[in-house]
Write a structure and sequence with these properties.
This protein is an alpha/beta fold. Helices cover about 20% and strands about 20% of the residues.
């Protein structure tokens, strides 16, 4: 109506939360067809919107961690800190000789010091480094999965902990494993035992 053209370029993973009002947009660049489906159904007014798939471009530089034991990195993000700690406790119950790293998100409570985790031990919070020689990257809705899928040196597995609010587009790489809430512990046991 105003003659303004709006283009959206996806950053991050979409959520399935319904917005009170759908956004009118002329063009959308999304990471996958599954993300486009989410844009169509819960975010945008799809009429007169052109949808394009834009390959995810990682800007990460990976380092070698030189780990001696099985290493799991867990991608944290705002609002998921307690889930990360619960996941660490579950892993430690299955096997306590695993090196666990939390990759903090710039806006999460691990980074800003507001997260108390006195019950959980044997892990390290890493703010900036990302290691290609880990055995598993565990994510909830983090785009780190895309970064690791694009890293040619990474030979481990991306473990996606299913979250009902996250679009399933994150789970479509052959190097990934999806763990659902009803079978998460048995799936973890199978992976790391």
């Amino acid at each position: 109506e105003l003659g303004v053209h709006m283009i959206i370029s996806q950053h991050g993973i979409n959520s399935r939360h319904n917005l009170p009002y759908k956004i009118p947009v002329n063009k959308v660049f999304a990471f996958s067809s599954a993300e486009i489906d989410v844009f169509r159904s819960v975010i945008l007014e799809p009429e007169n919107t052109e949808f394009c798939i834009k390959q995810f471009q990682s800007t990460l530089v990976f380092s070698k961690g030189n780990f001696n034991e099985t290493t799991i990195a867990i991608a944290s993000q705002p609002g998921y800190e307690t889930k990360v700690l619960d996941l660490i406790l579950a892993i430690m119950e299955i096997r306590n000789d695993i090196n666990i790293i939390i990759y903090s998100h710039p806006a999460d409570n691990f980074r800003n010091g507001k997260m108390a985790y006195t019950k959980v031990r044997n892990f390290e919070v890493i703010h900036n480094e990302r290691y290609w020689d880990i055995d598993f990257l565990m994510v909830f809705t983090s785009t780190l999965a895309f970064d690791y899928w694009g890293c040619q040196l990474f030979s481990g597995k991306v473990v996606c902990i299913y979250d009902k609010n996250c679009t399933v587009s994150l789970y479509d790489d052959e190097r990934s494993i999806v763990l659902y809430p009803d079978s998460c512990i048995s799936g973890l046991r199978e992976l790391i035992s």
